[in-house]
């Protein structure tokens, strides 16, 4: 009897071999906008600038999620942030958060890690659903270019939790849209998730 690790590798190979559509940035943006433009008054927009979330205001009748142009990771990461944010947060610029890269206290760093584990777990699920590469963002960027093993394990554990217990509602809707559009419903499974 083959090991679960070998089974997972074979499942992963089947996943890539049965892929019948190449993913494009435009497809992902259109897929998101078709799903949420009317129901959530939210659109995804590529930008040359830093990613940003802007709620409805006098200049636009839609909430806008700005993601880095030509980046699958940015598309999925910014959508994941939006999927986690509650209604009150979605009424604030960048959900009312600020990105403090320098001089985080130990408490701030732990809060950041806990939040990013959730975000990156959802991003990973989207990436696998669309068959795009997932890269973990280091837990101490910009000071480190590699994520710690503990942090990687935390993201994996959160990913398994979401796959077992269910994603936040908007994340579940988008995951299912990806699986249907790319015809991956029958091959998507927990076995496809191997710690990067």
Can you describe this structure?
The chain is mainly α. The chain has one domain (4-192). It is built from 6 helices and 3 strands, in the order ααβββαααα. The protein has helices at residues 4-17, 25-36, 72-84, 106-130, 149-165, 169-181; strands at residues 42-47, 52-54, 63-68. A 3-stranded mixed sheet has the order 1-3-2. Helix 3 (72-84) packs across helix 4 (106-130). The chain is globular and about 45 Å long.
* Major β-sheet strand ordering: 1-3-2
Let me know the number of strands: 3
Q: Which regions have little confidence, pLDDT < 50, spanning 5+ residues?
A: 1-20
Strand content: 5-15%
Taking all Cα atoms into account, the compactness measure Rg is 17 Å
Structural class based on helices, strands and sheet pairing: mainly alpha
Give the overall average pLDDT: 84
| End-to-end separation | 26 Å
Broad shape: globular
DSSP helix count? Answer: 6
- The tally of structural domains comes to 1
Quaternary class? single chain
Strand/helix succession: HHEEEHHHH
What descriptive keywords fit this protein?
8% strand, three-stranded mixed beta sheet, disordered N terminus, 196 residues, mainly alpha, single chain, 3 strands, 6 helices
Task: Describe this structure in a few short sentences.
The protein has 196 residues and is mainly α. The protein has one domain (4-192). The chain has helices spanning 4-17, 25-36, 72-84, 106-130, 149-165, 169-181, and strands at 42-47, 52-54, 63-68.
């Amino acid at each position: 009897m083959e090991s679960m690790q070998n089974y997972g590798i074979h499942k992963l190979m089947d996943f890539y071999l049965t892929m019948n559509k190449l993913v494009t940035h435009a497809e992902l943006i259109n897929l998101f906008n078709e799903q949420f433009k009317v129901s959530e008054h939210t659109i995804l927009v590529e930008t040359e600038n830093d990613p940003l979330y802007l709620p409805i205001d006098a200049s636009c009748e839609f909430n806008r999620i700005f993601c880095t142009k030509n980046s699958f990771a940015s598309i999925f990461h910014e959508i994941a942030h939006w999927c986690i944010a509650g209604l009150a947060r979605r009424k604030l610029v960048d959900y009312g958060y600020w990105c403090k890269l320098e001089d985080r206290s130990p408490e701030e760093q732990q809060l950041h890690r806990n939040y990013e584990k959730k975000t990156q777990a959802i991003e990973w699920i989207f990436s696998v659903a669309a068959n795009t590469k997932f890269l973990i963002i280091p837990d101490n960027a910009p000071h480190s270019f590699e994520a710690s093993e503990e942090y990687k394990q935390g993201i994996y554990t959160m990913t398994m939790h979401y796959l077992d217990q269910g994603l936040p509602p908007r994340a579940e809707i988008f995951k299912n849209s990806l699986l249907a559009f790319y015809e991956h419903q029958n091959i998507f499974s927990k076995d496809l998730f191997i710690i990067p």
